[in-house]
Amino acid sequence: GQNIDQPTEMTATEGAIVQINCTYQTSGFNGLFWYQQHAGEAPTFLSYNVLDGLEEKGRFSSFLSRSKGYSYLLLKELQMKDSASYLCAVLDSNYQLIWGAGTKLIIKP
Amino acid sequence: ETGVTQTPRHLVMGMTNKKSLKCEQHLGHNAMYWYKQSAKKPLELMFVYNFKEQTENNSVPSRFSPECPNSSHLFLHLHTLQPEDSALYLCASSQDRDREWSSPLHFGNGTRLTVT
To answer: Which of A9, A21, A43, B101 would be A35's cystine partner, CB 3.0–4.6 Å?
Structure first.
């Protein structure tokens, strides 16, 4: 079967750095997405990786290793507004999105 | 504002009721989706429409019935639901699903459905 694993919950301190990991076992790979979802709101697109390496967008960076079936989302200079759930999703060989259950990130002052 | 609007935001219905969820997108997209989101579970894709044609129905019970009158509007008709159908129902849109598969999804804020 196809599977996406990410931690259920993480806690970090305002101003610090946090890394949210995502490992996947899917039938084929056509890219990996990260979405952010604040409580009671819509998931919003953060990043898309299809090639190995690190992509940086301001305070957020996303890394991909296809050989390891692994990605992470790196959040720097954490702010209280970063408290949210972070969803990892992989596009498989049939271009179907396989979703993880999400990681709830709690930021403490 | 995400460009995708869902109504109502909250809905409580009995198991014998009939109700409909509405979704409208203002992004000029050609694909629209219904997802079910339950606590601590991955998003479950229910239905996909591309250019108003239903392209996917992921083994969804017949008590859920989608309708897509045009590329901007999507409905989910509900009848004789079960308590386990209580969840957040998310609508999303994207560019042409068959050609722009790397195009991100744009979600609405969802309808929180409670079946009593």
So the answer is: A43
